[in-house]
Amino acid sequence: MAHSKNYKYVFLDLDDTIWDFHTNARLAMKDMFDDRGLIRYFENFDQFFDIYARRNIELWELYGKGEITKEYLSKERFLYPLSKMGVTDEALAAEIGQHYLDNLPTKTALMPHAIELLDYLTEKKYPLTIISNGFVEVQYRKMRSSGIEHYFKHIVLSEAAGALKPDKQIFEYALELNVAKPNEAIMIGDSYAADIVGAINVGIDSVFYPLHYPENSDKPECTHMIRSLREVMTIL
Ligand SMILES: [Mg+2]
After folding, report:
1. Can you give the pTM of this predicted structure?
2. Where residue 147 sits, what CATH number does that domain have?
3. CA of 136 to the centre of ligand 1 (A)
């Protein structure tokens, strides 16, 4: 396949694109569950985690649409699983939420081949920029714990950019920092709604790295769709 584009800048999402959020969140949540003895309210850890995870996804969607605040999200995602078990203890919800947030960024699991890809892109001299909707204090600690912060020339977080993906404002901010034109950049991410729609909104090409690769459906609108980060090395 001919290389039709000459990309100069690579934009990357962090959670579940480079840093294995899924694995790390589960590990941090299990620590909290054991530490705080939540077994007294739930049948087992999986029951708690399933209720939490489903509600958490809904809440992040609402936060992405600007319908709820960060404070509401942080509180409600822990209050919800407790209240499902008949426990309406706001102080406990706040306490376990803090335990989780303090512990999560110390976890270090990365997506398969993430380091290999970051080394490759660095060797090829692409300036790398993280674009993430995550909370500032949490995202920096994740990158430091897992030893990847030095790979990135710029770290663009929604709280600092004043907009959340897929708003084109956050991508325009990243382009400005790099003094890049849209056709010189490519965005790699696992979230279609945030990363790929965002890239489309600002007119940059995209690499969609879905958590669950759709086997039997048409390829969604994106420039490339990959099963493994290693495939990026054939694009760039
Ligand atoms: Mg992500």
Report:
1. 0.86
2. 3.40.50.1000
3. 15
